[in-house]
Every structure is written in C-alpha cells, then in structure tokens.
Amino acid sequence: MSKIELLQGTLDLLVLRVLQAGPMHGFGIAQKIHLLSSDALRVEEGSLYPAVYRMERKGWIEAEWGVSENNRRAKFYELTKIGRKQQVTQQATWERLANAVGQVLAKADQLKG
Prior knowledge:
- This protein is of the alpha+beta class.
- It has a single domain, classed as Winged helix-like DNA-binding domain superfamily/Winged helix DNA-binding domain (Arc Repressor Mutant, subunit A, Orthogonal Bundle), CATH 1.10.10.10.
- Helices cover 53% and strands 14% of the residues.
- The chain has helices spanning 10-18, 26-36, 45-57, 81-107, and strands at 24-25, 61-67, 73-79.
- A 3-stranded antiparallel sheet has the order 1-3-2.
- β2 and β3 (73-79) form a beta hairpin.
C-alpha cells in the first residue's frame, strides 16, 4: 500500500483524538494511529514530535515523565481541558471538509455537458 500524505493540521487532530483514550508516549501515539488507520498512516518521529511540542506550547496537551511498558523512561502526553475542546472543534471542521470534498467528487460527473 502506498504512503498517504497527511493534510496540514490533520496530524494534530489525530494526536488529540488518540489521546482521548488517556496518556500515551510518542511512540505509542504513532503506533495507535498506524493501527487505527489499518496500516494506511505511518507517522514518523520527524513529524510527530514537532507537532506534539507545538500542541504542548499551545496548552492542548501536557507532558509528564513516566516508565513505558518496556521499562524505559518516556514522556507521556495527556489532553488538557483546552485540548479536549480543540479536538471537538477540529473534528467538526474535518467532518465538514470531508463532506464537502465527498459532494464535489460525487457530483463532478453532473458537470459534463
């Protein structure tokens, strides 16, 4: 399967959505997105961590050091109250965009004339 490129801002939404399940370290976030997308999306460290740090600066998530399942020290990220609101807003925007794109794709053949 070919790699799917994420639209700008989509990674933030995916990270916020995955973190609704609870605190998770960076590698776990990337794994969860990969798993939930049925292997279609692979988030690389070079994309994930800048996004996570940006969301942390915006107050959408907060981080705390802990121990991972393989007994390694890791930073665990958790949604804040502001982050929960941001996730709801971004998801609604995404759903409107996806619906609009779907309508264009479905109706484009009607334009032939």
